[in-house]
């Protein structure tokens, strides 16, 4: 059995749409990944589905106690459990900042087909640019690109992804990408694995044993291969080989990632706090630099305060995230027996508290209480 669906991007004319099929036992998280491919999104942002009055997404345990709605876990809920009738529709929301709303309609339930592999069947027009500013931003971009003497044209041409053509769509290109990701888009129970083969995992002891057997040239080749394997591995090796110089360079890169969620170079901040926090965690993992990691966390809180002072009070969830990050900073400062971190960040830690005065949700009081816990005061 396969589900044949049509997805349309709402409020866009002419329509941007796709028809595609998939096995109904996929989870909503797998469906999200498939939609990203068939539409042409780049999976930069959060998402959720609205199905029969229920919300399906990725619950954030940090804010679970503050949610005024139930969010079903997209990694566990299957599509078939919630969508069972032909011509029924549900909504897929991608990027809570740009707020791209898609309508997904189950066109046909085909019981004659058994291949669980998804397939893109048809479609029209290219997906909008990521972070373009939603429907209005997309329409403005098209207007600029179609106006030869528009004052913003040169800026937008440099900004759009290479080769962008708003009228382009190719199901062949989409299906090549689907084929590459196929194993992630098929229900786990239906994945065909070679009989008798068990998953192979490289243990630390096995790695250590293997490395001892390599000569210097083989070790060099291995490190070179690791360097080219991924961007993260390249950064990791840069830190280990180049030291402080690489750490500082990475810090500037990740600082920009955090700051752009509040004050981007273009447009308004989208406050994708989870992405900013993920950038901080990545930097911490790659560099293991306590001072720079602490500074990134402080930049996160400072930008949160500045954002409020610029645009007004946000919400309880926002300030809870800021206060939690500030608490992490205070914990790290207190764990430093030398007081070096306190000396380095004392003025900025106090300034954040002072600037937060007058902000709602008890935010200032929370920061003041946390600041008072610094052991060196």
From TrEMBL:
SUPFAM superfamilies: MM3350-like
Family annotation (Gene3D superfamilies): MM3350-like
Signal peptide: none
InterPro entries for the chain: DUF6155, MM3350-like_sf, Plasmid_pRiA4b_Orf3-like
Pfam family, one: DUF6155
Domain Plasmid pRiA4b Orf3-like: 2-172
Superkingdom per UniProt: Bacteria
Protein name: Plasmid pRiA4b Orf3-like domain-containing protein
């Amino acid at each position: 059995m396969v589900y044949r669906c049509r997805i349309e991007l709402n409020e866009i004319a002419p329509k941007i749409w796709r028809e595609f099929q998939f096995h109904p036992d996929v989870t909503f998280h797998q469906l999200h990944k498939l939609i990203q491919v068939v539409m042409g999104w780049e999976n930069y942002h959060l998402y959720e589905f609205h199905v029969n009055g229920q919300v399906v997404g990725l619950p954030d345990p940090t804010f679970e106690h503050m949610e005024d709605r139930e969010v079903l876990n997209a990694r566990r809920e299957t599509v078939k459990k919630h969508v069972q009738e032909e011509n029924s529709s549900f909504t897929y929301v991608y990027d809570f900042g740009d707020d791209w709303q898609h309508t997904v309609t189950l066109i046909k339930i085909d019981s004659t087909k058994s291949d669980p592999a998804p397939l893109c069947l048809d479609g029209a027009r290219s997906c909008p640019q990521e972070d373009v500013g939603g429907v209005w931003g997309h329409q403005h971009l098209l207007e600029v690109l179609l106006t030869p003497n528009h004052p913003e044209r040169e800026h937008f041409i440099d900004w759009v992804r290479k080769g962008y053509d708003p009228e382009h769509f190719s199901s062949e290109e989409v299906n090549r990408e689907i084929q590459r990701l196929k194993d992630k888009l098929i229900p786990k129970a239906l994945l065909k694995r070679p009989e008798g083969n068990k998953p192979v995992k490289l243990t630390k002891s096995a790695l250590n044993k293997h490395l001892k057997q390599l000569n210097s040239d083989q070790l060099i080749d291995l490190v070179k291969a690791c360097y080219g394997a991924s961007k993260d591995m390249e950064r990791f090796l840069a830190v280990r080989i180049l030291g402080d110089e690489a750490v500082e360079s990475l810090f500037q890169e990740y600082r920009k990632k955090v700051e752009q969620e509040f004050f981007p170079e273009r447009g308004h901040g989208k406050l994708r706090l989870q992405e900013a926090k993920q950038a901080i965690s990545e930097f911490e993992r790659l560099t293991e630099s306590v001072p720079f990691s602490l500074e990134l966390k402080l930049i996160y809180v400072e930008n949160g305060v500045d954002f409020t002072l610029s645009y007004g009070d946000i919400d309880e969830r926002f300030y809870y995230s800021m206060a939690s990050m500030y608490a992490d900073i205070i914990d790290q400062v207190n764990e430093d027996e030398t007081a070096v971190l306190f000396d380095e960040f004392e003025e900025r830690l106090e300034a954040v508290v002072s600037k937060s005065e007058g902000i709602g949700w008890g935010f200032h009081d929370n920061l003041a209480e946390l600041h008072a816990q610094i052991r060196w005061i």
